[in-house]
Amino acid sequence: MSLVAGGVAAPWYMRTTSAATTTSLVAKWGSVRLAPVGFEPTSVWGYDGGVPGPEVRVRQGDKVSRRFINQLSEPSTVHWHGVRLKNAMDGVPGLTQEPVLPGEEFLYDFSVRDAGTYWYHSHDRSWEQMARGLYGALIVEEQEGAPDVDFDEVLLIDDWRLTETAKIAEGFDNLHDWAHAGRIGNWVTVNGDGRWRKTVSRNSRLRLRLVNAANARIFALRAPGLEGWVVALDGMPLDAPEPLNGLVLAPAQRADLIVDVTAEDGAEAALVSQDGKSAYQIGTFSVDGEARRERLAAPAALPANPVAELGDLTSARRADLLMEGGAMGSMRGAMLGGRMMGIQEMARAGKIWAFNGMADMPSEPLMATDRGETVRIAMNNDTAWPHAMHLHGHHFRQVGSDGSLGPLRDTLLMDRGETAEIAFVADNPGRWLLHCHMLEHAAGGMMTWISVS
Length: 453
Ligand code: C2O
Ligand code: CU
Ligand code: CU
Hints:
Elements: E1 23-32, E2 42-47, E3 56-59, E4 63-70, E5 78-81, E6 105-111, E7 116-122, H1 126-129, E8 135-141, E9 151-160, H2 175-179, E10 187-190, E11 197-202, E12 205-212, E13 219-222, E14 226-233, E15 236-243, E16 247-249, E17 254-261, E18 268-275, E19 278-290, E20 317-325, E21 333-336, E22 339-342, H3 343-348, E23 353-355, E24 367-369, E25 373-381, E26 387-391, E27 397-399, E28 411-414, E29 419-426, E30 430-436, H4 439-443, E31 447-452
Parallel strand pairs: 1-4, 3-8, 9-12, 11-19, 20-25, 24-31
Antiparallel strand pairs: 1-2, 4-6, 5-7, 7-8, 9-10, 12-17, 13-16, 13-18, 14-15, 14-17, 18-19, 20-23, 21-22, 25-29, 26-28, 26-30, 27-29, 30-31
This protein binds CU-O-CU linkage (C2O) and copper (II) ion (2 copies).
């Protein structure tokens, strides 16, 4: 498992140090049993060498403090997805911090004001680093009003592309993937386990915290043998629990479910994803015994997080975001590296998507706002592919054409050809990315940013 073995002395940064005052988080090589018995363990890049990385669990209002140590052979950073933290801790190389070079470290230190289900992941060459395993859960427990459940379980769902010998397939820079749906894999794991299973009892109540950690795969979930409610999306509590009736989870999205095991004693409940006509089981709950005779009463809503209410939308500052490119799209070219390029030349430079006619990180923000302003972004997916649009540092609401407001989210799935408008209070100062969380699409050009001062 140790790649520094074999006669070469470990460099200083790979030696273990003691007396650390802050917990460390080390990006390094590791070995994980992703595939079933009979296959070799898979070499991964993981936090502390594992997949998922160690669970970071704190109380609302507490501090997260992790000394990130990069033991990879390339630069990396850690992004705390969905957390409304201070900009300097957001982990975006070139925008909020310098990349952390091999052998170097960076102290991530911030407090969390929102309870809920979040996660952390690499934000440097993330299409490869995350496909190799660099992610973990960040759980912020409610200050008070946590629901009464028998189990609180985090399920990080990932989609891997493995070879026949269970190695992670190379070819991360495959432009065909980039121009289509992204790197879709062939092996799905929950918490790094391709055969995830848990024993529960009938009528027990579970809080399931689902995280889609895949590069690009969208999961359309059903839960036969479980009945219950969605109580939060992307960490943020819904105003009222909504009956669980299937759930679409795009890359980076989370959902908190409160479910009761309704399958009979001795039977199984499951988490199933429906992919077109075929369905595959992601996780299994074996039912053993009975927790209580009857189901519990419906849960109350989780306590709301302190997110500012939207101001007047009619007078709000507005930006348009045209999403273009990809296979079967109509884009002819875009600005890249300061000049106009045709699509062929762009493809040779590894860019095949554009926001507002620009195919890489623009030097100017999509929008520059004053702190506390309510802003709107009207997005138009003029491509043949779905996209998972993610905003850093803020949660937004979708504004319907009739003015209705959707739940607070940090990642919005937009179907091909769909338009969607989002609104949020830009109250977190700094420079914040807005990008597609299908990581190959972001790498291929779907990236911009806003500035809040
Ligand atoms: Cu989860 Cu910009 O990322
Ligand atoms: Cu993020
Ligand atoms: Cu996309």
